Structures are given as structure tokens and as C-alpha cells.
Amino acid sequence: MSDYGFKLVIPDADELTEAGFGKVAHIPAIFDSTPGYARLPSRFLIDRALGVWDPTGRGTKPNPRPPSRISIKNFGYWLCNALEWAEVRGVDLIACDYTTVLIGRYQQEMLKGIWSLRGKPLAAQTVNARIAVTLEFQIWCADKGFLVGLVCCIRSCSQLRISSRPYALEASHTATRLTARSM
Predict the structure, then answer these.
(1) What is the domain range of residue 103?
(2) Which of 2, 36, 109, 182 has its CA 20 to 30 A from that of 20?
């Protein structure tokens, strides 16, 4: 069987609405390389799109202004990229270490052009966006109970500052152990 990679699938909103799924008809889904429905990444996109979870409130209260459809689509593409990288590299993206793996490997491979379509270094802004969404996905997994004991070098994604410099994400270096509903 061919390797399909991870794909973001944009649904036919009219068809899903007619089938009774109007609430989520506009939200893209992620399919893995088998190809099959990637349940956790797709649920993450659903929760973000509906305002059920965001990196600030972390599911404690609904977000009255959830991300736009374009933002959700971008989150999906960025998460697909991280998921594909993790699969190719044999990394458990949900449980991997932020500093060693996400920054030390994934981020560095993008900045050096090792993990890029054209083999050229990616802009810090692109790298930052991909790392930030990947970290949000990890924190969401911890909040939902899919991961217990994630050690993360920041208190919350709301403290991330996007930088135009390489070595992209700047954050508090206080180690925090994330568990379901921590903080």
C-alpha cells in the first residue's frame, strides 16, 4: 500500500449538514497515513473550532470567540505536518519532550531545511506556528486525559511570544508537569 502521509480533509459542509452534523460541518478532519480517520487530532480541531478548548481557558469555560475557519484550517495543516514528521521519525508526538524533541529536533529540522518540501530553511514564523500548534495539541491531550505527566517548559500557550528570530518560541522556562485539568 502506498504511503499517503497525513492529510487535512475539508468536508462538504452542505452534505454534512444534511446528514445532521451541521455543528461540525465546517471543521476539517485529519486522516493518517493508513489512510484512516485520525481521531485525536481531529477531535482537537473540533474542540478548537467550537471554542470548547483553547490554550488560555484550557476547557474551563467556552471561548466566546473561537478561531476563524481559516485559522482552524491552518492549525490542521500545521498539525498534519507535525504528525507526519513524528511518524517518519518514529516519535510519539503526544508524549514527546518539548525541549529535546519539539525544539531540539522538529524545530531544528525545519530551520535547517531538513524537514521542508524544497529542502530550504523555513521562516521562523512558519516554524513558530507549527511548534505552537503541536504544543497546544500536547496540552489538549493532557487536559483531556490522553496523556498524564507531560513535562512542559511553559505555563500555558498564552505565554508564547512569536519571534521573527530563529529558535522561534520564547517562553518562561519554568518546568510544569501537566496532567488532566492541571493549572
Answers:
(1) 7-178
(2) 36
Give the count of domains, the chain: 1
Least confident of 28-37, 87-96, 163-172: 163-172
28 upstream amide cis, omega within 30 of 0: no
Please give the helix or strand (H or E) that residue 114 lies within, else none: none
What single letter denotes the amino acid at residue 137? F
Phi, psi of 10 (to 5 degrees): -90, 120
Q: Is residue 34 over pLDDT 80?
A: yes
- The Cα 25–Cα 2 span in angstroms is 29
**In-domain check, residue 135:** yes
Beta bridge partners of residue 177, listed in sequence order: 151
Query: 67 pLDDT exceeds 60?
Result: yes
Does some domain include residue 183?
A: no
Q: What is the pTM of this model?
A: 0.81
In a domain, 1, yes or no: no
